[in-house]
Specification:
By secondary structure, the protein is an alpha/beta fold. Helix content is 27%, strand content 29%. It is built from eight helices and 15 strands. Strands 7-4-1-8-13-10-14 form a seven-stranded mixed sheet, with helices on both faces. A two-stranded antiparallel ribbon has the order 2-3. The protein starts with a strand and ends in a 9-residue tail after the last helix.
C-alpha cells in the first residue's frame, strides 16, 4: 500500500520557520517532521510514498536526492577516477515519488494531481505536519472491514491552555494540560479507496471543506477512534513541544 503525504502548503501559522523552507521540512530532533511521519508508516511496512510538493518543493526534492549519500558511509576516490565507493548503507527501503502539485492548489486538488501514481488501489493519506502513535495496521484493517470510500482517524485533542479548578475564590487545582471538550476531530491519518478521487474536480477543491462533508452526507466516511498520542505542528509552540518530547527520549510517536 502507498502513502500520500501533503507537503505543499504555505505554513503561514508557523511563519517563523517557513520563510526559508516548507513546513514539512521543519526539523524535530535534527530530522524533518516529514521524515518522522514516513518512519511511522515504515514501521508498519509501508515504504512507498507519494509526496505532494508545492511551496519551496525543490527543498524536499534536494533533501531526498542527497538522502542516500548523507545516510551512508562512503569513500570518494578523488586520487584516481573520482568514483564513489559505498561501504555501509543506512537509508530506509523507501520509494519516494515527489510531485509538484502547485503552490496554491487546495488539499483535494493536490490529491487529484498525484492520482496517476496510485495504481487504482486503496492507499493511506495524511498531512505533512502531524505526529501520532496511531496503529496504521489496525487503521487499515478497520477501513477494509467497513467497505466505505474513506476512513479517518478521529482524535480528542487536549486543551491548549492551563485549566483552573475553582471553589469560590480559591484555586483547588491547576492542570497544565487539561482535557479538551471531549469532541472528536479529524486527526489527519486516512485510508482511501481510489473511487473517492472522482469527487475531486480540480485544483480549487478542499479535502476538508468540500470532500469530507459530502462523504459524511453520503454515508461513505468511517471513523477510527484513536485515544493515544496525537499532535499537529501548527505553531512554533507546537514545534517546541514536539522537540521537547524528542529530546526527553520518550517521544510517543517513535515506534521504530
Amino acid at each position: 500500500m502507498k502513502a500520500v503525504i501533503l507537503a505543499g502548503g504555505l505554513g503561514t501559522r508557523i511563519s517563523e520557520e517557513t520563510g526559508s523552507r516548507p513546513k514539512p521540512m521543519i526539523e524535530i530532533g535534527g530530522k524533518p517532521i516529514l521524515w518522522h511521519i514516513m518512519k511511522i508508516y515504515s514501521h508498519y511496512g509501508i515504504n512507498d510514498f507519494v509526496i505532494c510538493c508545492g511551496y519551496k518543493g525543490y527543498i524536499i526534492k534536494e533533501y531526498f536526492s542527497n538522502y542516500f549519500l548523507h545516510t551512508s558511509d562512503v569513500t570518494f576516490h578523488m586520487d584516481s577516477d573520482g568514483s564513489m565507493e559505498i561501504h555501509q548503507r543506512k537509508s530506509e527501503p523507501w520509494k519516494v515519488t515527489l510531485v509538484d502539485t502547485g503552490e496554491f492548489t487546495q488539499t483535494g486538488g493536490r490529491l487529484l494531481r498525484v492520482s496517476q501514481y496510485l495504481d487504482h488501489q486503496p492507499f493511506c493519506f495524511t498531512y505533512g505536519d502531524g505526529l501520532s502513535n496511531v496503529n496504521i495496521r489496525t487503521l487499515i484493517k478497520h477501513h477494509l472491514s467497513c467497505n466505505l470510500e474513506v476512513s479517518l482517524t478521529a482524535v480528542q485533542p487536549p486543551g491548549r491552555y492551563g485549566a483552573l479548578h475553582l471553589k469560590k475564590n480559591s484555586v483547588q487545582q491547576f492542570q497544565e494540560k487539561p482535557d479538551g471538550d471531549n469532541a472528536w476531530i479529524n486527526g489527519g491519518f486516512f485510508v482511501l479507496q481510489p473511487k473517492v478521487l472522482e469527487r475531486i474536480s480540480g485544483d480549487s477543491i478542499s479535502w476538508e471543506s468540500d470532500v469530507l462533508p459530502h462523504l459524511a452526507a453520503d454515508g461513505q466516511l468511517s471513523a477510527y477512534r484513536h485515544t493515544g498520542f496525537w499532535q499537529p505542528m501548527d505553531t512554533l509552540r507546537d514545534r517546541n513541544r514536539l522537540e521537547e518530547l524528542w529530546a526527553s527520549g520518550n517521544a510517543p510517536w517513535k515506534l521504530w
